[in-house]
Design goal:
This protein has 454 residues and is an all-alpha fold. The chain has 20 helices and 2 strands. α9 packs antiparallel against α10. The protein is globular, with a radius of gyration of 25 Å.
Length: 454
């Protein structure tokens, strides 16, 4: 059973705060992403008793895994869930433990709807677990469904007798025979788990692979307590691991099964720790960076339209209204500690409240802008209404003496105060009776800390 002390939790919080303000140059000094992946995998495997003495081809295997993770998480559609995210999750763990860290490295290898399908390499790694949909280039289905509605049939695409490792992962995820697996019940996490255990199978025993798959099952987010049974997702994971332990002769004691689930709860909390930060501005920055992942139009940084932006913000507002802070952070048998969960839930509640107000204000302004667009010719690029967006291209200065065009435009672009208009009222009004959230007001007036392309 995992029993962390209070200093462990505080240490993690201090690291998180430092990382949130770390510059990109400082991160670069820590090595390239592939180098860091190689070193982290090598270190974790060494702690598990795997080294070049026990496996002569270990370095080649580690490099292959590092390149697989890097390629999977470096596609253009990834913004928040990039390679840096796996290191952030690993550093957010309360207990620095090699099984959880390895699981963190693999946990977002597959992000089907964000990436637009599976890469050829991913499809190769998932043979037998998925089949190409009829007419789809890289669909996840054997049912002839559309590429963008992937379905994988558990225990049916490949029978358990033909692939016991795949069968074990399917049972850890709790899928019944022929059950449709899609994005609503853990498709991304399931496929990431299969890739992880298959890549690690040459060097790690089945019980260790089961522990890693257990961690990855727990990263399916935001699952409420079952209203019929009163069980949490961690309670159900314990039951599934208990059965898998017997069915596959893993040799775990009951206490070891408890530790498996607690370790999984730690990784699950680390993955969504952004919601429970005490820094609301960091929360808003991270949340805003998710927009282009779930809204393809925003990836075209200078071409997206008013209505595309409005719809993206509308979806985020709906998510903030839907999500209950109590379901964000799973725990099992007092791990993480009740006071840690209480603190995280408290911060998450405040962050969601601020997020609703901030995103709601954005939604209001964009709705007005969208209405204006619709009444004046229809939807159009947002730059038509709000001016050019941030760009790496800069204008070339006019030759000396040729500033006439600037003079003509100055009256439209210069602040009113520079044109003889006094911006300060002679008598200040008292706004003390107006209720407002200071955090929301600050971020609306000063902007978010991190620049974005939209």
């Amino acid at each position: 059973m995992i029993i962390p002390n209070g200093s462990d939790v505080k240490k993690v919080e201090q690291v998180q705060l430092a990382r949130s303000h770390e510059s990109s140059k400082t991160q670069e000094k820590r090595g390239t992403y592939i180098t860091r992946l190689v070193m982290t995998l090598e270190e974790c495997l060494a702690k598990l008793g795997v080294n070049t003495t026990t496996h002569v081809d270990l370095l080649a295997l580690i490099e292959r895994m590092a390149c697989l993770i890097h390629e999977s998480m470096s596609v253009s559609s990834r913004n928040y869930h990039s390679v840096q995210h796996v290191f952030d999750v690993a550093e957010n763990l309360i207990i620095d433990e090699p099984i959880a860290v390895i699981a963190a490295l693999f946990h977002d290898c597959v992000y089907y709807h964000v990436d637009g399908g599976l890469s050829d390499l991913q499809y190769e790694k998932l043979k037998g677990a998925v089949t190409r949909a009829a007419g789809a280039a890289n669909g996840v289905s054997g049912c002839g469904c559309l590429q963008n509605t992937p379905i994988c049939e558990a225990h049916k695409t490949t029978h358990c007798a033909d692939d016991t490792l795949l069968c074990m992962v399917e049972k850890i995820f709790g899928y019944s025979v022929g059950q449709a697996v899609n994005h609503t019940n853990g498709l991304n996490e399931f496929l990431s788990a299969i890739i992880a255990v298959r890549e690690l199978a040459p060097v790690l025993p089945r019980p260790t692979l089961a522990k890693i798959a257990c961690c990855l099952e727990a990263t399916i987010p935001f699952r409420p307590v079952d209203t019929k049974t009163g069980e949490s997702c961690m309670d159900k994971l314990f039951d599934k691991m208990t059965k898998v332990n017997v069915d596959f002769s893993l040799g775990f004691s009951q206490e070891e099964v408890v530790t498996c689930v607690q370790r999984a709860a730690d990784l699950s909390g680390a993955d969504v720790l952004n919601f429970g930060t005490g820094d609301v501005f960091w929360f808003l920055d991270n949340t805003w960076s998710l927009l282009p992942e779930s809204n393809e139009g925003l990836r075209r940084s200078h071409l997206y339209t008013v209505q595309q932006f409005q719809f993206a913000v509308f979806k985020m507002y709906g998510f903030f209204c839907f999500l209950q802070p109590e379901v964000i952070y799973p725990f099992y048998q007092n791990f993480p500690a009740p006071e840690t969960i209480q603190e995280r839930v408290g911060h998450a509640s405040n962050n969601l409240h601020v997020g609703r107000s901030y995103v709601g204000a954005k939604l209001l302004s964009l709705s007005i802008l969208s209405a204006v667009a619709e009444l004046t010719g229809g939807d159009a690029p947002i730059s038509l209404f709000m001016g050019d967006l941030p760009s790496r291209h800069t204008s070339i200065a006019s030759p000396i003496g040729q500033t006439g065009k600037h003079d003509k435009l100055s009256s439209l672009t210069e602040p009113a105060g520079l044109m003889g208009v006094d911006l300060e009222d002679e008598g200040e009004e008292d706004f003390s009776d107006i209720k407002y959230n200071k955090d929301v007001y600050e971020v609306l007036s000063k902007g978010r800390r991190t620049e974005s392309s939209f």
